[in-house]
TrEMBL record:
Domain of life: Bacteria
Region (Disordered): 23-43, 357-376
Record organism: Streptomyces ferrugineus
This protein's name: Squalene cyclase C-terminal domain-containing protein
Listed Basic and acidic residues bias regions: 365-376
UniProt feature, compositional bias: Low complexity: 23-41
Signal peptide extent: 1-24
Transmembrane segments: 382-400
Keywords per UniProt: Membrane, Signal, Transmembrane, Transmembrane helix
């Protein structure tokens, strides 16, 4: 949703300091890993992590937790080690032993993604607390967030931060700056229901201050307006393709308008197209997966059925080429629609994701099954232990009874 473009484009965005990792979606395969450079064994994926290391690690850990897999301890420790003393995360710090300084390129997206992952895993309140404090400290006056601290607010960054706030139990509406909440910032980036792109979200206003519909930003904006993070449960709101404006538009209405835009955009082909110059006719797999999550979060699985089926039939090669974050996105889409990620169009997304990095600890379900098997292997079984306690209890009862009788004689 937020990091799905080439390293070169993302690097330029960081240098400019005014763009989120999701200005444009990139469906192209990830660059091949450099044979002359070794990356941390605890990090998922084999491509250069300079611009997305923390992001993709966070998505992987969150996806594993979502499907009941206990991530490798080293993978979690690596993510924790990437945090600066301020609480912020940079996309990647090759030497985490060195202190962060003013030149360390920390950003809101990496920080918010890490918060969502660590909060889901549990037991990392100190780390998430520091991260959220930093996010609050760089909130813009309009209530939103940009990719870099101080950068103009954008839909994608504001939405992923909302997800982080919700993950730690904060109420996003109560996190305000100069009286403005994150929801107000999103509303200011939402298009009206008349004209091109009706109901969509823009990433940011263009140079002329005009809001231009952006499907990637819209998928993010729908989740943000709903107060949701990357992992969602199916929603229950009515699904339709209508858009409605009002004098006092609520966040839920803004989300409904965005969902209506996505529904219309997906109606013909069942997938969204790339926004990259020269690739306009190519499918954007990642953005389509994000749209599935957004539609399901608002209206349930049926609202996302068409793009979900398209992904099941067409996303395998893209995911294999793009790596761990892509598998995580597909797992989020499966989870949001109640689809089995271990049989996603015939593919086991969980196994494929786990194979991109350090072997995780055994899944909770597998541990439970092992416990049942251990009981079954015992020739006496669990009932033998129950019987022992019953006998012991009866014996104690007789002793007490005899003692009482002896006292009355």
């Amino acid at each position: 949703m937020y990091v799905r473009r080439s390293a070169a484009v993302l690097a330029a965005a960081v240098v400019i300091g005014s763009a989120s990792p999701a200005v444009a979606a990139d469906s192209s395969p990830s660059a091949s890993p450099s044979p002359s450079r070794a990356y941390p064994a605890e990090l998922y994926g084999g491509t250069d992590p300079t611009y997305d290391g923390v992001w993709r690690q966070s998505l992987v850990l969150l996806a594993q937790d979502t499907v009941g897999v206990r991530p490798a301890k080293g993978a979690v420790d690596w993510l924790l080690g990437q945090q600066c003393a301020s609480g912020a995360f940079a996309p990647y710090r090759a030497d985490a032993g060195e202190d962060c300084d003013a030149k360390t390129p920390v950003d809101t997206n990496s920080t918010a993604a890490a918060v969502q992952a660590l909060a889901a895993l549990g037991g990392h309140d100190a780390a998430t607390g520091k991260a959220v404090s930093w996010l609050k400290s760089v909130q813009n006056k309009d209530g939103g967030w940009g990719y870099a601290a101080g950068g103009a607010s954008d839909t994608n960054s504001t939405s992923v931060v909302i997800g982080a706030l919700a993950a730690v139990g904060e109420k996003p509406a109560s996190v305000v700056k100069d009286g403005q909440s994150p929801y107000g910032a999103l509303d200011g980036l939402a298009l009206p229901c008349k004209g091109d792109g009706a109901g969509a979200f823009a990433f940011q206003p263009d140079k002329k201050g005009t809001l231009v519909a952006n499907a990637d930003a819209t998928a993010a904006g729908v989740l943000g307006a709903l107060g949701k993070g990357l992992v969602v449960r199916p929603g229950t709101a009515a699904s339709d393709a209508s858009c409605a404006d009002g004098g006092d538009r609520t966040p839920r209405q803004t989300a409904a308008n965005g969902a209506a835009y996505l529904t219309r955009a997906l109606a013909k082909d069942g997938y969204l197209k790339s926004a990259l110059p020269g690739a306009e006719d190519q499918p954007d797999y990642g953005n389509t997966a994000d749209a599935v999550v957004a539609l399901a979060a608002r209206s349930g699985a049926d609202a996302a059925r068409k793009p979900l089926r398209w992904l099941e039939q067409n996303s395998a090669k893209w995911a294999e080429q793009s790596g761990p974050a892509a598998y995580a996105q597909l797992i989020f889409a499966a989870h949001a629609t109640g689809t089995d990620p271990r049989d996603f169009g015939g593919a086991n997304l969980v196994e494929q994701l786990n194979a991109t990095g350090p072997a995780p600890q055994k899944a909770a379900a597998e541990q439970e099954e092992k416990g049942k098997k251990d009981d079954g292997d015992n020739p006496f079984g669990a009932w033998w232990y129950i019987g022992v306690f019953l006998v012991v209890g009866i014996g104690i009862g007789f002793l007490l009874s005899g003692r009482n009788k002896g006292g009355r004689q």
